[in-house]
Amino acid sequence: MTEPTIVGNATFQFQADNAWPQVPPEAQWQEAVGVAADSQGRVYVFNRGPLPIVILDRDGSFLGGWGQDLFNRPHGIIIDQDDNLFLTDDLGHTVRKYSLDGTLLMDVGPCGTPAETGVEGMDFRTIQPGYGPYNIPTNLAVAPSGELYVADGYGNARVHRFTATGDLIQSWGEPGDGPGQFNVPHGIAVDHQGQVIVADRENSRLQFFTPDGTLVDTWDHVVRPTQLVVDDDGNLWVAELGTIAGMFPFVEPAKEPVGSRMSIFSSTGELLARWGGGENPGSPGDFFAAHDLWLDPFGDLYVSEVVYSAGGKDGMVPADCPSLQKFTRMPTQGDDE
User: Fold this and answer.
1) Contact at 8 Å (CB) between 259 and 223?
2) What burial letters (b/e) apply to 116-151, b meaning 16+ CB within 10 Å?
3) Where does the pLDDT of residue 173 fall: very low under 50, low under 70, confident under 90, or very high at 90 and above?
4) What is the pTM of this model?
5) Are strands 236-240 and 261-265 parallel, antiparallel or unpaired?
6) Helix, strand or coil, per DSSP, at residue 253
7) Phi and psi dihedrals of 202, rounded to 5?
8) Closest CA relative to residue 99, chosen from 136, 143, 47, 53
9) Of 28, 77, 122, 284, which sees the most CB atoms within 10 A?
C-alpha cells in the first residue's frame, strides 16, 4: 500500500490526494480551471471540457453537472455565503451569478461585449488605460458588505466595484508596474475588514486597497500569484503559478526559475507554510500550474491547475497530469482528539 503524501508543517498539515476526483468519461475535464465548495462541502469544478460545471461529493464521487454551451472559456468561480455561484467567462467577457443548480440569477455589470481597451490578443503591454468592464475578466470577490469586486484581467488592467445587485460603482487601476497599476490582475479577495486584495500576477505581487481603491500595502514575496482566499483567522492562502509554466512568449525567462507552489501567510505577511515547487509536477502535493484554490467548511483545501493551457499542450507534462488535488487537513498538536 502506498504511503500517503503529507505536506505542510506542524500547524498546517495536509494529506495530498491527486487521484481524488471520480469523474466519468463523459464529464472529464481538459483542465479544472477553477474550484469552489458550498456550505455542505460539495465541490463545484469549473471545467474546460464537455461539462463546464462538475459537481463532486467530499469523497470525490460524481454528483452531476450542468452548463453545456453556456461559456466561451471558463475561468473564475466562487460560492458566496448564501450558496450562490459567481462564474467568470473570460473570453465571453461575462461575470454572472447562478444558483447551484444552474439557474441564472444576475449579470454582474455589462456582459458579452469586450471593452475596446486596445489589447492585442492577451498581450498586457498593449492595453490602454481608463476602460470599464470587461475585457477578458478573470475572477470575482464578494465583500462583507455584499459589494462585488471583479479583476479584469487579461485584456484590461482594472478592478471594478459593483453593488450587490450588479451596478457599477467605480473602477480603478491602469496598466503598468507602479503603485496601484496592474499587469494581469488575475485573482482577487476581500478580507474581513473589507480590504480588497489583488493578485497582480505578472508583477509578482499582492496589492491591498481600501474598498474605494486607495492603495495601502504591497507584498512582493510571491511569484506570479493566480488566486487567494482569506481564512477565518485572516490568513492568506495563495496559489502561485511560478515562472516555469504559463509564461507569456514575450516575457524573458527567469534567471532563477521558481516552480508552482502553495503558500500561506499571516495577515501581516509572515510565511506560515509552503509546499510544492514544481520538482515533480503531477505527483501528490506538487504543482505544475496552480491556478485556483478553495477552503471548504471542514478545513480541507482544493487546488486546481491549468495543466493543459500552461504547457501540457506543448508536452511540458504528461497528458494525464492531474488538474485537481484535494488536501485533507490533518489534526495538529493541540487539536482535540
Assistant:
1) no
2) ebebeebebeebeeebbbbbbbbbbbbbeeebbbbb
3) very high
4) 0.97
5) antiparallel
6) coil
7) -75, -10
8) 53
9) 77
